[in-house]
Specification:
168 residues; alpha+beta; TATA-Binding Protein; 3 helices; 33% strand
Amino acid sequence: MVGLAGCRSDSGFGPDLGAAEADELKTETLATQERVVKVAMDELGGIDRRKGRTVVAVRCSDLADRRYVSLEVRGSFVVENHRVPEVAAAVTRTWRKEGWDVEPFDGFVLVFRMEPLHGIRRNGSASLHDLRDDPSGLATGVGVVVGTGCFAIPDSLVESGWPRGSDP
C-alpha cells in the first residue's frame, strides 16, 4: 500500500484515494467509532441503546467536485446514574488513556483527534446531555461522531452511492 501522507490533489480539497483505500478508511473509521464508544461504555457501564450506526459521505464543499467527500460515523449510548459533568470527566480520562488527544469544550462537548490514515486526518466529538425522561431518572446521553478530513474517491464509488449499500 502506498502512503499518501502529505499528498494533495490539484484541487486542494484532499488526496485522491483508490477504491481499496477508501474502503479501508471507511472500515477503519467504523472500527474507530466502535472503539471510542466501547471504551467509554466499559469505563462507565453504559448501555448501548443505538438502533445502529449511521455512516455517511459528506461533500466537502459546494465548490468541490462531487468526488471530494469526508466520512462521518454517528452513534450513541446512555450512562445511567451519572450526570453530564461526571460522564464528561470519565470519558475524557478514558480516551486520554487510549492515547487520543481530547479537549473538553463548553462542558457538554468533547473533541478528540487521532492519528491520520492515508494522510487523512481523523477526529470526532461527543455531545453529552441529561436525559430527564429516562426511566432511571438520572442518566446522560452521549452522541459520538467520528469523522475524517476531505479526500477524493473514484467516480465508480460516487456512482455506486458509496458508502451506502454496505452494512455499517
